[in-house]
Amino acid sequence: MGIIPIISLVVFTTALSIYLLLTSRGRFLLNSLVTKIKLQGWRLRYGKLNYLRSRFSRTITIAVIIMAAVIAGNTVSAEVAGPPPVSLRSVSVPEPDNLGDFVKDKTAAIKLGKTLFWDMQVGSDGKTSCASCHFHAGADNRSKNQIAPGLLRVNPNGTENPDTVFNVGGLPNYQLKLEDFPFHKLSNPNDPTTVVSDSNDVSSSQGIFNTKFVDVTPGNAEDQVTNEPDPVFNVGGINVRRVEPRNTPTVINAAFNFRNFWDGRAQNVFNGVNPFGLRDPNAAVVKAATPNNLEFVKVSLKNSSLASQAVGPPLSSFESSADGRTFQEIGDKFGRIDRRSLSVGKGKKLPRKLAKKLLPLRPLGKQVVHPQDSVLGQDSRSPKPGLKDRTYTQMIQDAFKSEWWKSNRLIQVDSEGRRTFVKKPDRSLETNEYTLLEYNFSLFFGLAIQLYESTLIASDTPYDRFLEGNTSALTPQQQRGKGLFEGKALCIGCHSGLELTAASVSSVAKDGRIKRAPFGPRSPEDTGFFNIGVRPPTDDPGLGGHDPLQGNGQGNPLSEVRLAQLGKFQLLLGENPPILTPPLNSSETVFVDGAFKAPGLRNVELTAPYFHNGGQVTLEQVIDFYNRGGDFGALPPLNLSPEEKQELVAFLKGLTDERVRYQKAPFDHPQLFVPNGHPGNFNYVVNDGTGKATDSLLEIPPVGKNGDIGTPNFLN
Fold this sequence. Notes:
- The radius of gyration is 27 Å and the shape is globular.
- It has a three-stranded antiparallel β-sheet.
- It has helices spanning 3-22, 24-46, 58-81, 106-118, 305-310, 327-334, 392-399, 436-439, 441-453, 462-467, 476-486, 505-511, 560-565, 569-573, 619-627, 642-653, 658-661; strands at residues 147-148, 184-186, 195-198, 202-203, 211-215, 224-227, 234-235, 238-239, 285-290, 293-297, 410-414, 419-422, 431-434, 514-516, 524-526, 529-530, 596-597, 672-675, 697-700.
- It starts with a helix and ends in a 16-residue tail after the last strand.
- It contains 17 helices and 19 strands.
- The chain is α+β, with helices and mostly antiparallel strands.
């Protein structure tokens, strides 16, 4: 080799070493690449393939890959994208590229979204808001009447087989205790074979009572409902509030998720109507080309899984709505009140007789808004409840373009669901009429809440400051935990990227919506969804479930891999499936049953209980779970020492944004009263005279932009 090539090689190697070791981006890249290589080799060993029996040594392989990645990656970055982000603060929040076709004032839409998110009047009972389950670090810290039995259990063939027996506490309205956790108890937490007891119960969030929707009373926060006996959630025959069948995840940083909900059913594309995006061929809203000219249109907003998620709970018979309610009825409560009113039959929404106009509800009319609220402060009436000089009609008109709410025509829906445009009410008992604003209420609700939740970004953590170059932001113990997180503990396999989840929009953009696992048999998988052995797949199929959009009792698979196998990917998702290597076979086995979305981990010390079943109560229990390889055989054991476990826990606590802990802007909020179980216990409750148990209400005081002492953690 000549002298010039040798000198060039030395200069290049020296420059590369300086870049990798002395720059924050270089250190981050070096650590990530080495970790990925180590993870790949480890996983292949575990999958009976020995990656390290290559004719190249590990050292040479690492060096070659790092050089190639740095040269190629930095060339691409310089020519195409500019400097790559180094912390979550530099990651853009995903947003639909056609948002401007709907929203005319983003600030006004955020104000509307925050109001709707916290307003107790949204719920069918006039008490339950989105925030009722997301008021503590974006999640729920209540611990009484927060247990559900295994209602999502299925048979091995996929048919429903709900378990209605309460194992934890024995009955509803139970007060959870620390000693109830974990739900899968072992005599030796490092040995999954030492089972002492097991429960498929779920720790989640209480919602509403079992009722059937009859009608709304325009301008009244409570819907007209009929109470239905609840065979599961009752104490001595008296109904108690129903509890969701999955643990409540935080909404903070959920804006980065490609899909939402644990099972991914909230689609990336928002159709303006429901959570199911392009899967629902009948989803349509109404647009006014002119105030006199209405047309049904299909809308499609990408990167809007938060909007898809937002329109689910208000119509859920578990969370905030009587069974059978529609978004048009919710709109009735808040918009113009020139309506029909007739209530006939169990759950049947028949037309309403024309009645006098009622005054619309005052936004947040039951709750005090702090005068220094970062979004709503200037509209506060404190110490009186509600917003001053505001109606929901005005707030919608301020936020959205007029073609979505301004018309002098009505949308008429007959008893068969047929829709026509009319100039005036027909006074028939067989039709419902809706204003354009009421009919499109789901569009406004979903987009406004998405825009508000997109401001709830926790990116000011010690971890993020460390990534930005502040080497003292993490303690030495936390730095060792970070090394374990990215190496031996294998956490980064699911909690990857700056968002700390493989289910992010950026991860899907990089890897595709479906891909092959990088280890073992390389089975196809939905990007960001994993079965880690929390429970058997038959307890809750998760991603292995189906949407509700076919009339045969079982809709299309939620798994996008299974859609591709069925040849339905393009039809239901609007794009061609990624090409896998080797190509996807329609008959090959995919492991999606029991798989769930990998959550982001910021603020994880604040959001117990953990996993989709809420079955672990401390971070130590979570680390023990992973160390033993899960509870139902899905993961390799880690063989962590007690010291290493504590280092991991310390690192996870370095993911906390103190603004979240102390409810500082943008995490401040209006006053809230949340149902917190019922007076009495699991043996006795008080009948309110209608067959329902009386509520215990917990006040969450209003907080301004400067925050306060925060709310206590679960069972703290």
